Amino acid sequence: MKNSFLLSCIQANEEIAMKLKDSYEESYYHMSSVGAGGDVSSGLDLWAESIFVKHLGSFGKIESEESGTIGDGSHIIIIDPIDGSSNALSNFPYFGTSVAKIGADGILDSAIVCNLANGDIFFKELERPLRQGKLFDTNYREPIVAPNAHIGLFEKAYAHPEIVSKLDSLDLKFRTPGAVALSLAYARTVNYLLFVGSYRIYDFVAGLALCEDLTVIVEEDYVIVSKDKDIADKIDSLVRESLNMNKG
């Protein structure tokens, strides 16, 4: 890999992963003020943000879910320092990081999502294929695909019982792991990814960049991703029906 930005992203993730593997500081659990993304930032979020700023600050202006705009430059780096921080602080092993870099021309040129719990890392460069690997390992490959996946991922399912019921009636099983960018990175290994609700760039820009060869439906209040267009269309119809009923 020759891309210095991606190398710096990986180094930041490796530093964070090594620290979290050893121990959690008491300060990580302290809750701070509401961050730029609208959620209350934890000490863990802010500490991870500082690691990314250290490694990536020279590449451009950082837009972080926690502190908002950091630094300056013609390139914009959008980060979610800890994707699924509630999971991390509950010792639930499904949390990671999300980084995307947008060039001076306004085009996204790099995206990287990492699962800090197991070391999986996914990255995409402009006009280059998606690659997958592990932290602390320089062997990268095409992403793993599960052609006959038995489950989907429905983020924020707890807020939409009527959609849950409709998915169940169609035998579209799902899990709700609670880390959107990470779930998007695993879209090839599941039947579908569904998110319903208002969404923020910090959660989606890098993850969606990893899904460009899949069926992607992005509407004002929901996102659907699937490697099977028929399934994506079927879920699109039932979500539209449910949301329209609620508006009515």
Give a short synopsis of this structure.
With 248 residues, the chain is of the alpha+beta class.
Structure, explained:
It is a single chain. The protein has 248 residues and is of the alpha+beta class. The chain has 2 domains: 4-134, Fructose-1,6-Bisphosphatase, subunit A, domain 1 (Fructose-1,6-Bisphosphatase, Chain A, domain 1), CATH 3.30.540.10; 152-247, D-Maltodextrin-Binding Protein, domain 2. The protein has 7 helices and 14 strands. The strands form 3 sheets. A 7-stranded mixed sheet has the order 4-3-5-6-7-8-9, sandwiched between helices. Helix 1 (4-22) packs antiparallel against helix 2 and helix 4 packs across helix 7 (229-247). The protein is globular, with a radius of gyration of 18 Å.
Q: Helix- and strand-based class?
A: alpha+beta
Helix percentage:
25-40%
Tally the helices.
Answer: 7
CA(first)-CA(last) distance: 52 Å
The name of the CATH superfamily of the largest domain reads: Fructose-1,6-Bisphosphatase, subunit A, domain 1
Q: Kindly report the CATH topology of the largest domain.
A: Fructose-1,6-Bisphosphatase, Chain A, domain 1
Number of strands: 14
Low-confidence stretches: none
Sketch the topology as an H/E string, one letter per element.
HEEHEEEHEEEEEHEHEHEEH
Q: Can you tell me the CATH architecture of the largest domain?
A: 2-Layer Sandwich
Biggest sheet strand line-up: 4-3-5-6-7-8-9
CATH class of the largest domain: Alpha Beta
Q: What kind of sheet is the major sheet?
A: 7 strands, mixed
